[in-house]
């Protein structure tokens, strides 16, 4: 990805890694570009009876993005959605405290923001992240991932000024983990260690 983003090397750009997996990819990218790395902490909104599946995502600032088609199919009311969002926000706030404590997010005004994850699945978490970052008024907003299915990439593309995806999959079956030799779930202490490393 760094080879696709050479313009931003040694610049005032900032890599914003989506915790947790995007922190590992973001650390590597930030090191290659010699720019800062900061965390983003969105969370998917899980379907209560199938928590591995999500129907949207939420950011610490309250930005919520929903898969409206799925919401209609599941027949969730706005009140039910709000009930589902509350525990997600509580976990987001916990992670924020663990990862950055009381440190305020750096200003992005006039800077290039490069939002990174380990890959796209449905894309809704990335959309929430991009919309939240856009509110912070970066001069240029980049979305960068190693891999994505075609439909998710098209869904996300309109949210960023520039999109980098190294491998676009058109396969009928897709999982981000398929494209990694090792894909363990990152622990909080690993995220903290990567964030504390200086560029």
By DSSP, the count of extended strands is 8
Q: What profile does the largest beta sheet have?
A: 5 strands, parallel
**How many independent structural domains?**
2
Mean pLDDT: 91
Percent of residues in helices comes to: 25-40%
Gap between N and C termini? 17 Å
Strand content: 25-35%
Q: Low-confidence stretches at least 5 residues in length (pLDDT < 50)?
A: none
Look at the helices and sheets and give the structural class: alpha/beta
Cα Rg = 16 Å
What is the level-2 CATH architecture name of the largest domain? 3-Layer(aba) Sandwich
Q: Helix count?
A: 6
Folded structure, characterized:
The model has no long low-confidence stretch (mean pLDDT 91). The chain is built from six helices and eight strands. By secondary structure, the protein is an alpha/beta fold. The chain has helices at residues 21-33, 68-74, 78-100, 124-134, 150-157, 188-196, and strands spanning 14-18, 36-40, 43-47, 50-58, 64-66, 112-116, 140-149, 162-169. The protein has two domains: 2-42 and 104-196, Rossmann fold (3-Layer(aba) Sandwich), CATH 3.40.50.2020; 44-99, no CATH class. α4 links the parallel β6 (112-116) and β7 (140-149). The strands form two sheets. The chain has a five-stranded parallel β-sheet, with helices on both faces. The chain has a three-stranded antiparallel β-sheet with strand order 3-4-5. The protein is 36% helix and 25% strand. α3 crosses α6 (188-196).
């Amino acid at each position: 990805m760094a080879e696709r983003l050479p313009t931003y090397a040694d610049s005032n750009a900032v890599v914003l890694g989506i915790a947790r997996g995007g922190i590992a990819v973001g650390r590597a990218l930030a090191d290659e570009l010699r720019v800062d790395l900061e965390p983003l902490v969105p969370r998917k909104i899980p379907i209560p009876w199938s928590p591995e599946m999500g129907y949207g995502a939420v950011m610490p600032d309250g930005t919520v993005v929903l898969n409206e088609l799925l919401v209609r199919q599941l027949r969730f009311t706005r009140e039910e959605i709000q009930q589902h969002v509350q525990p997600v926000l509580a976990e987001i706030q916990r992670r924020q405290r663990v990862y950055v404590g009381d440190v305020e997010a750096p200003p992005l005004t006039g800077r290039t923001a490069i939002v990174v994850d380990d890959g796209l699945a449905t894309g809704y978490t990335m959309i929430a992240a991009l919309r939240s970052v856009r509110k912070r008024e970066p001069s240029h907003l980049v979305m960068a991932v190693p891999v994505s299915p075609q439909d998710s990439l098209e869904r996300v593309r309109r949210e960023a000024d520039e999109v980098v995806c190294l491998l676009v999959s058109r396969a009928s079956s897709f999982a981000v983990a398929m494209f990694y030799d090792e894909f363990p779930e990152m622990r909080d202490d690993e995220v903290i260690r990567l964030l504390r490393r200086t560029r």
